Amino acid sequence: xxxxxxxxxxxxxxxxxxxxxxxxxxxxxxxxxxxxxxxxxxxxxxxxxxxxxxxxxxxxxxxxxxxxxxxxxxxxxxxxxxxxxxxxxxxxxxxxxxxxxxxxxxxxxxxxxxxxxxxxxxxxxxxxxxxxxxxxxxxxxxxxxxxxxxxxxxxxxxxxxxxxxxxxxxxxxxxxxxxxxxxxxxxxxxxxxxxxxxxxxxxxxxxxxxxxxxxxxxxxxxxxxxxxxxxxxxxxx
Length: 237
Description:
Elements: H1 3-29, E1 42-45, E2 55-57, E3 61-67, E4 74-81, E5 87-94, E6 99-101, E7 109-121, H2 127-130, E8 135-146, E9 157-160, E10 165-169, E11 180-187, E12 192-197, E13 201-205, E14 211-220, E15 228-235
Parallel strand pairs: 2-8
Antiparallel strand pairs: 1-3, 3-6, 4-5, 4-7, 7-8, 9-10, 10-13, 11-12, 11-14, 14-15
């Protein structure tokens, strides 16, 4: 066979082989890169603000609303004094317990509260994502003013309506402390629990020659808040 013809045949075969390998290589390693998923990062403090945009924290806790990805649960908060970089205290919470509880030694004053959301996978399908190097993360920051008011008092009292009938009355707790679920009324010495009410008053009856302690307990919708209790002594002698 003509040597020139053989030479050209080898060149053609080599080109076909290289083209085939390149196509297969591209076909095998093709990965569709998607846009990162929209991840909801939302944390809101449930407290009033002042004219400076600072949140007013009246008691020993801060309440939040959370909207976080399913794979994010534990959340880290750091508290800084105003104009200081030193981490005054670190707090941990999660979506099932949406509050921070302070210790008594957190002084009133101005602070910066920062929240770091742990990293979450982007799920873009990129090589970095599949290798575990591509993550989302976010930091929130708030200016807060801690006042540390005393725990509210129900200030239970009574008015005589007749010889044996009395009206118990009490104060509704500050809404910044917590939302009341119900009040329960007790006759401490005789009948036990008398009833449940949403109102801040309740009518009770004593016998002509009777006396007792009446107790009112306020239960809150926030499970971390212990009930508030107040009592009053009524004598009908």
